[in-house]
Design brief:
The chain is 21% helix and 24% strand. The relative contact order is 0.13. The chain is globular, with a radius of gyration of 20 Å. By secondary structure, it is an alpha+beta fold. Helix 6 links the parallel strand 15 and strand 16.
Length: 364
C-alpha cells in the first residue's frame, strides 16, 4: 500500500506522545485497557484488538471524537457498549476527526460508555480525542489478568460473516466478540490481546518470513510492527496467565500460488521456546498456556500436538516458573469469511476455553 499525505498529521503532532501504557490509568476520568498509546489531554490511540477507553457521564447524550490513524487513509471500526448493553460497531471513515452522537435510553442518573477497537493492530490505530460528556469519576475493581497472543482467529478477523464477498478485510472484524474478550467477560477478568492476522511463530500465512515479520519480531513493539519509530511495549500489564495460540499460519499451505516450503517443526519449536523465554524475562510469575488450533486438522494436527509437547518438555526442568500447560480446542468447521470462525464459532471457543482458564486462575 502506498503512503499518502494524511490530514491528521498536524493534529497528531499537536497531541504528541507523553507516555505509553497498557494498563488501567490512574486518573478518575477515563479507564484505558489493552494495547494503547496514551497521549496528552486524555487522548489515546487504541491499537490492539478490543483495546478500549471507558468513562462515566451524566445526562442522556454526548458525543465522542474518533479518527482512524495510519500511514495511509482507510476506515476502521469500534464497538460501543452503553450501560452494559452492546450497541454494535460503528465505522470511522478515513480522514479527519469525526464526532459520533451517543444517546442513553435508560433512566439511570449516571451512564457508562465503553469504546472498544473492533479491528486489529495491523489496520492502524484509532484516536480517541475526547468527549462532550459531563464526566463523573470512574473506577475499576482489581481483577486477575489474561493476555491472549495469537493470529487472525484471536483477532476475530473475518468473524462478521454477513456479505463476505463485499467490502474490505477490516469490514468483517469483530474484536469485541473474539474468544479472548468474550471468555474474559464471562469469567470476570481483565484481558489484553496481542494478535496479528496471518502471523506465525516462524513463518506467516503466505510468507516464509522473507517479506513479513513473525510474532517474535513484532511482539515487543507496542504497535505489533517492526516500525522502530513506534514506542516499545512496556510489559506493565503483568498477566496471571499468558495464552499463546500460534501455529495456524505456520502450518498453512499459503495461497497455493506463492512458493511454500514444507513445515519445519524444528524451527517452529525453537522459535516457540525462545519466545517463551522472552515472555518469562518480563512476566516471571505468569502461567503460560499454549494451544492448538481448531483450524488445523488431520496429520497436521498430530504434528502440531507433537510440537507443543516438545515446547512444553523443553521447560520440564525449569523450577523458576510455573509448569507450561497445553489446551486443545476441538476441531471446527468455521462459518465466517475466508474460512475463519464467525462470531458464533468464537463463542464456542470461549465456552471451551473459559472454564479451563477460570479453574486455573482459581488454583493460583
Amino acid at each position: 500500500m502506498f503512503l499518502k499525505k494524511i490530514p491528521f498529521l498536524i493534529l497528531f503532532l499537536q497531541i504528541a506522545t507523553v507516555c505509553v501504557s497498557q494498563n488501567t490509568n490512574q486518573n478518575k476520568t477515563f479507564l484505558y485497557e489493552g494495547r494503547i498509546e496514551k497521549l496528552q489531554n486524555d487522548n489515546v490511540i487504541l491499537i490492539g484488538t478490543a483495546s478500549s477507553v471507558s468513562f462515566n457521564f451524566t445526562g442522556n447524550e454526548c458525543s465522542i471524537s474518533l479518527q482512524s490513524v495510519d500511514s495511509y487513509e482507510h476506515h476502521n471500526y469500534v464497538a460501543l457498549v452503553l450501560d452494559g448493553k452492546y450497541l454494535g460497531k460503528i465505522k470511522i471513515e478515513k480522514g479527519a476527526l469525526q464526532a459520533f452522537p451517543i444517546k442513553a435510553t435508560s433512566n439511570k442518573k449516571e451512564h457508562r460508555l465503553e469504546i472498544y477497537k473492533n479491528t486489529e493492530a495491523r489496520t492502524g490505530g484509532i484516536l480517541f480525542a475526547g468527549t462532550t460528556a459531563k464526566l463523573t469519576p470512574i473506577s475499576s475493581k482489581k481483577k486477575k489478568k489474561i493476555e491472549f497472543i495469537g493470529d487472525s482467529i484471536t483477532c476475530a478477523a473475518a468473524s462478521d460473516s454477513v456479505d463476505c464477498d463485499k467490502g474490505e478485510y477490516m469490514d468483517h472484524h469483530n474484536g469485541y466478540y473474539a474468544y479472548g474478550p468474550t471468555l474474559s467477560r464471562a469469567i470476570d477478568v481483565d484481558y489484553l490481546t496481542s494478535s496479528v492476522s496471518g502471523i506465525g511463530m516462524y513463518r506467516n500465512w503466505n510468507d516464509e518470513n522473507k517479506d513479513e515479520p513473525i510474532m517474535p519480531e513484532v511482539y515487543q513493539n507496542l504497535y505489533l510492527t517492526k516500525d522502530n519509530s513506534k514506542p516499545k511495549y512496556d510489559f506493565a500489564f503483568q498477566p496471571n496467565i499468558i495464552s499463546i495460540a500460534l501455529g495456524t499460519n505456520d502450518f498453512s499451505g499459503g495461497d497455493g500460488k506463492k512458493e511454500r516450503l514444507p513445515f519445519n517443526a524444528e524451527k517452529y519449536v525453537s522459535n516457540y521456546i525462545n519466545f517463551i523465554k522472552m515472555l518469562y524475562e518480563h512476566n516471571p510469575k505468569a502461567q503460560i498456556v499454549i494451544t492448538n488450533s481448531p483450524m488445523v486438522n488431520g496429520e497436521k494436527a498430530v504434528v502440531f500436538e507433537e510440537c507443543l509437547n516438545k515446547v512444553k518438555n523443553a521447560f520440564a526442568n525449569d523450577k523458576a516458573h510455573k509448569t507450561i500447560l497445553i489446551f486443545k480446542f476441538k476441531p471446527m468447521k468455521p462459518n465466517g469469511c475466508l474460512g475463519h470462525p464467525d462470531v458464533a464459532d468464537q463463542k464456542v471457543m470461549a465456552d471451551q476455553y473459559g472454564p479451563f482458564l477460570k479453574k486455573l486462575l482459581n488454583e493460583k
